[in-house]
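Holo prediction. Input below; ligand is iron/sulfur cluster.
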Amino acid sequence: MKLTRRGFFALAGATAAAAAPGAACAWESKAPENPYSCLVDITRCIGCRKCEQACNEVNHLPPPATPFDDARVFDAQRRPDEKTYTVVNRFETGRLDERGQSAPAYAKIQCMHCQDPACASACITGALSKKDNGAVHYEVTRCIGCRYCMVACPFQIPAYEYHNALTPEVRKCTFCFERITNEGKAPGCASICPVEAITFGRRAELLETAKERIRKDPARYVDHVYGEHEVGGTSWLYVSGVPFERIGFQKLPAAPPPKTTETIQHALFSYLWSPALLFGALGGVMALTHRGEDKNQQDKGERS
Amino acid sequence: MSQHPAPVARPFWTPGVLVMVGFMIAGGLALLYRFTGGLGAVSNLDNAYPWGLWIGVDVASGVALAAGGFTTAFLGHILGREAYEPVVRPALLTAALGYTFVAFGVFVDIGRSWAVWKPIIFQNHNSALFEVAICVMTYLSVLWIEMIPIIAERYGKKIPLLGALDRGLSKFMWVFIILGVVLSCMHQSSLGTLMAIAPTKVHPLWYTPWLPLLFLLSAFAVGYPMVVVETTIATSSLKLESETPVLSRLIRFTILTLGLYMAIKFWDLADRGAFIYLWDGSGRSIAFWAEVGLGVILPWVLLLFPGVRASRRALFTVCLFIVAGVLLNRINVFITAFAPPFANHNYYPAMGEILVTAGCAATIMFLYRIGVTYLPVLSARRIEEVES
Ligand code: SF4
Ligand code: SF4
Ligand code: SF4
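Structure of the complex:
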């Protein structure tokens, strides 16, 4: 038995040593090449909430807490939740319009459909995944409800059905996955917007459009396409007339969050090289410290 | 005192045990509510704070505080230091019970408890949580396999199947012992990787890409102090002779492991320039000071004194501080440090969450009590035997 034990450790050690170099490979983005995207132009949005209403209808969501034509809803800042995939918030900008009245900015928020989504990297079962067409898609049949996706999301987007005891779901903007994948249509919100504040298209082209708008009218826009670089880039892009910090957008690093964790995970556990190495090392130590004890141990075992 | 472990001959039902049962019933009621009304009915969890007391304490701290199992297995079985045998079995029992309740905590916390097995089929190898889950599941099985010889020692003759299983396993036990240590190192560190996915949501006093290393080192550090705490409580409440001589020797290793943890923790803070947050007087800075000042620096300094290590009371107190420090670290990383960008409130656990956590802790103690009463776990003799 002792010999086989030695042999086993030699094998484990060799496997580990062979696998180790493979683990050192650098992290690579898995972002789709040129996915569908939406460009939101904050300077155009008039805060009509038609997009909220369309979203509600397309996704068969429950009736809203405040009717879609009630402007009092803007008195408080809202977040998307398990019953609302998108909300429009109003921000006082301190600017005045031509008639000297305060000109607020309206910002529609929803899942950003990140290019390298933290939620999908975190999801224990792969229930969330980035599709080639750009949507970060949720597959409820895989979900166990651990809510790690919610911990991970830098935009604090996924919401949970906390009051469903047995079959709660994670809820967030779907990018109207069915419509854009199988029906060839734009998302509900983008289709309905009366002032074309939401443009649906391919990411590369929309980035061009965004920069074009800024270039043509630098007085109207701040020089920043939000979502171009934030957390590695997102499928939803924004241009605005007021600095983004003032309309509820965070300053975020350009590195995608999964880069850190996936680098750690793969450096340590690719081909299970480190566990194998540790197993071999500990086995070696154990064999050394227990030399000539095999007989004793058998005695011990028999005593019971 | 170096007698072979034996069941403890003491009456089982004591006032302490009844108190445990009380907590267990209260926790059970809260659980009933959780599985009928949903997580929202018993907890203060919401869309901003998806993780709370159960993940921070029942799961993350539970794993850390069960580190006595693999650290003593390493010393006793792998390094073969037989002098420490008396603490290996109680630590193993604590670990087996601890991990059982870690798994139970996960079961309660996830929204779709019945889907708890799904990560076995649907695997996301990029997810640190996936690795934690698989390691914890496997390690839990390994721990109960390691328990088999102890159970068979008492019941192997009565239950022939158990005896046969034990004899069959004894040849391969070394595989499980090593596997237990390997799996522990893996998931103890990966628990730290969990929060590394949220760099913008975890306060810089705790956020570092070195979280996995810090979690691993603190697990090494807390293993023996946890053994000291539980052994001291067990021997004093069961009126057994004190195990202080073994424990004082055991704790010398902690000077090294805790010192290493402390050094890396401060190096990391300095490296990231996060020292500036230490003096801002915020709730988080106070939580950090409590964790590191009282839970790491103070006990580490005290451990350097041989007099402290030799005194049963002082040793127990110092170890309690270390245990509390690591517990607070896990609470800080998972709860205190978590700062959702759009939350306009803080998270505090609801009564329902506290009752479930307290109920689980009471159940662990209750089962430990059953374990030492019926199984050969503790080596210490009853005080009257020692004196006579
Ligand atoms: S915004 Fe959040 S939920 Fe949406 S894809 Fe990005 S990480 Fe995932
Ligand atoms: S709650 Fe569901 S979707 Fe979110 S990480 Fe867990 S398994 Fe994945
Ligand atoms: S429909 Fe268009 S204009 Fe109306 S709130 Fe939505 S984005 Fe703004």
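Residues 2-23 of chain A form the longest helix (22 residues). That is the main takeaway for now.
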